[in-house]
């Protein structure tokens, strides 16, 4: 049976990294959203980090007004972020672990260690019609915990897979595949992301039952040479096995 087309969520954080690094009004995030959607993005993702290093509060509110596909707000499990999410009402909230000094989101959420806080957050956001996704490692115990607290979606961390040289990826790929099948049996929706690029995305996109891939850094890097629309079209083709 053909896997239904895996959704592509385009993470636009690094459009605003470029803006913030010089304090300029450009590049324009809203224009990036428009181009991404024209190029076929199924959703727009942005991460409002505690240190506001790229996406700013105003970006989140303004983006909510213009996104026509779906909005996925990545955020830490803090009271501040919970209250912003409830005001913004994105379609999805992906809860991620966050440490100020990290270069990017470096590991999955410790759901088991913070079960009650995670349960409260899932419940609170769900009451506002926000679908919650938990960004976790491909680990069955963590997946069981996500199901136990009624998170509808998980996003599996593909960073370790992406960091491995191609000849050593098979084992990690199998771990992600098995985790996906385990989560699907529990009724969870399974997304994945982190470190994906046109050379490593296909193997993740063909995992049976995969719903969505969230991809940012490599798309923005490719956009430097081929434009944002070109980079998104190329990623879509790579996911579909056409490049
Ligand atoms: N998914 C999550 C939960 C993330 O935190 C990130 C990075 O912001 C991504 C996906 C996208 O990762 P990358 O920028 O490496 O494509």
Kindly describe this structure.
- The protein has helices at residues 13-22, 29-38, 57-66, 79-88, 115-127, 140-148, 159-163, 170-185, 201-205, 217-239, and strands at 7-11, 43-47, 71-75, 92-95, 131-136, 153-157, 189-193, 212-215.
- The protein has 243 residues and is α/β, with parallel strands linked by helices.
- Strands 1-2-3-4-5-6-7-8 form an eight-stranded parallel beta barrel, surrounded by seven helices.
- Strand 2 (43-47), helix 3 and strand 3 (71-75) form a beta-alpha-beta unit.
- The longest helix has 23 residues, at 217-239.
- It is globular, with a radius of gyration of 17 Å.
- The two termini are 22 Å apart.
- Residues 11, 13, 47, 74, 94, 96, 104-105, 135, 155, 193-196, 214-218 line the site of pyridoxine-5'-phosphate.
- Globally, the shape reads globular
Order of helices and strands: EHHEHEHEHEHEHHEHEH
**Contiguous uncertain segments of 5+ residues:** none
In angstroms, what is the radius of gyration? 17 Å
Q: Which structural class matches the secondary elements? A: alpha/beta
For the largest sheet, list the strands in their spatial order. 1-2-3-4-5-6-7-8
* Biggest sheet descriptor: 8 strands, parallel, barrel
User: What small molecules are bound in this structure?
Assistant: pyridoxine-5'-phosphate
- Work out the helicity level: 40-55%
Percent strand equals: 15-25%
Question: Summarize this, please?
Answer:
The protein has 243 residues and is an alpha/beta fold.
Q: SSE layout and pairings?
A:
Elements: E1 7-11, H1 13-22, H2 29-38, E2 43-47, H3 57-66, E3 71-75, H4 79-88, E4 92-95, H5 115-127, E5 131-136, H6 140-148, E6 153-157, H7 159-163, H8 170-185, E7 189-193, H9 201-205, E8 212-215, H10 217-239
Parallel strand pairs: 1-2, 1-8, 2-3, 3-4, 4-5, 5-6, 6-7, 7-8
The structure holds pyridoxine-5'-phosphate (PXP).
């Amino acid at each position: 049976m053909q896997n239904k087309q895996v959704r592509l969520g385009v993470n636009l954080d690094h459009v605003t990294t470029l803006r913030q690094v010089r304090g300029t009004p450009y590049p324009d995030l809203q224009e990036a959203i428009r181009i991404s959607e024209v190029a076929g993005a199924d959703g727009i993702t942005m991460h409002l980090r505690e240190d506001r290093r790229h996406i700013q509060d105003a970006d989140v509110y303004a983006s909510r007004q213009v996104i026509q596909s779906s909005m996925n707000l990545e955020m830490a499990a803090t009271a501040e972020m919970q209250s912003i999410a409830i005001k913004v009402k994105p379609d999805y909230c992906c809860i991620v672990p966050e440490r100020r000094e990290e270069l990017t989101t470096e590991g999955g959420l410790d759901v088991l260690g913070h079960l009650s806080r995670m349960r409260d957050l899932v419940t609170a956001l769900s009451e506002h019609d926000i679908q919650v996704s938990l960004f976790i490692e491909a680990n069955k115990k963590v997946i069981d915990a996500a199901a136990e607290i009624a998170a509808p979606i998980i996003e599996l961390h593909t960073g370790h897979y992406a960091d491995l040289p191609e000849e050593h990826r098979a084992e990690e790929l199998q771990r992600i595949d098995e985790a996906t099948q385990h989560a699907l049996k529990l009724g969870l929706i399974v997304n994945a992301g982190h470190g994906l690029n046109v050379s490593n995305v296909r193997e993740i996109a063909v995992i049976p039952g995969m719903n969505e891939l969230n991809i940012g850094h490599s798309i923005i890097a490719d956009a430097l040479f081929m434009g944002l629309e070109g980079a998104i079209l190329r990623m879509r083709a790579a996911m579909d096995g056409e490049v």
